[in-house]
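Supplementary Methods S3. Complex input for the EPU-bound model.
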Amino acid sequence: MGLPYFEIIGGPRLRGSVRLSGAKNAALPILAASILCEGEVVLRDVPRVADVASLTELLAKLGVDVEWRADGSLKLIARDEMNCRAEYDIVRKMRASICVLGPLLAKRHRAQVSMPGGCAIGDRPVDLHLRAMRELGAEIELINGDIVAKSKRLRGTEMFLGGPFGSTVLGTANAMMAAVLADGLTVIEMAACEPEVVDLANFLNQCGAAISGQGTPRIVIEGVKELHGCEYTIIPDRIEAGTFMVAAAITNGELTLENARLDHLMAFVDRLAAIGVNVEKNDKGVVVSSARRLEPVDVTTQPFPGFPTDLQAQIMALLCLADGNSVITEKIFPDRFLHVAELARMGARLRKEGPTVIVQGVKRLVAAPVMASDLRASAALVLAGLAARGTTRVHRIYHLERGYQQLDDKLRAVGAEIQRKEGDEV
Ligand code: EPU
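Predicted complex, serialized as structure tokens:
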């Protein structure tokens, strides 16, 4: 049997209500943080996506009992502290495995994590993660492609965690998770402000940590002796929310996103408003609808609260149909443009100049077989398929399934003609 793919017949206007899953990028570090806790952690709204499955597999190898319960929650208990190694096999599948580094060092005083390589969206160094661990007192060597880290009890310190592209989301998460059990006070300057980092800090605080300043560039962590378990609900996925907002706009439809958080999407909604998409909150949720004419706009990705890189591909799909020229600049991952050539196969007019793409709006997109290359690029192709004339096949959707829970089912429930099929030879 071949690989799964999506078949999408473009055209139907989407209408109805969608409940968003919990945020993948909040869930992953919070799952890893279970290594730090004594006793039971119960997480609600953990999305059932492939990346979560990869991480639970890794956590099981690291001695954490993992159990999906009948009510959909996930129970984790760290029982066996012997194994401290995250092997290449799993890290290569999912770079976010790097977020076990901080918890392993803090709790077990040693960690061996395979060095993540680059990925479809470009070079992705981990120098800032390593800097954070060293500043907290860990000794780190690189042996046979593994990061081998050792420490006695970590020591609180003041650190600057900015790099050439600004703050780092998982680097901040790792630093926070390492510092919670350190001796004394840690201050992280130029910390990432993303809602997923705030969610991790809130989770850790519920487990007995003393973190303040989350959501600002200066996070302060007072080390504690130990963390206990807790019950916690993961925030709704803002990237999934943004993806459905574009789905409503690109089909001239109207969707209500029941649990979307507008405070997590300000830069994105600002751009949608400039395009002419209506976004309003009422007592049922956030309602997104679109006027027929889409205005061209300029978009620049930035760390939060700026425009998220994880929605760059999706807004590009929408701007392909705007009435004029838009300019999209990628300031986080300058090579994150693999969707450009695929969108062009569907009739989009795009010109890439370094980290910028000039989007010349066209009247319509046309269906074509296209290939997903990374998670968010895949979502952009699905969105383009919803609007294109004809039947689009999106191949290699295993990329998409790393981070979207049942995207096809959710889209079908609001009127899209999308089928997940098996047997793809591409
Ligand atoms: N960077 C460094 N050195 C480091 C770490 C990062 O120079 O040690 C650079 C990166 O190369 C990039 C910038 O800093 O230019 C920001 O990268 P960041 O570290 O913030 O990315 P990340 O933490 O590895 C998370 C998300 C990504 C999302 C980025 C940016 C998770 C699991 N992943 O990655 O999500 O694009 O933040 O917001 O949280 C996705 O979900 O599709 C995805 C790729």
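The first helix runs from residue 24 to 33. Residues 25, 28, 96, 124-129, 163-165, 168-171, 192, 196, 309-310, 332-333, 375-376, 403 surround EPU (CB under 6 Å).
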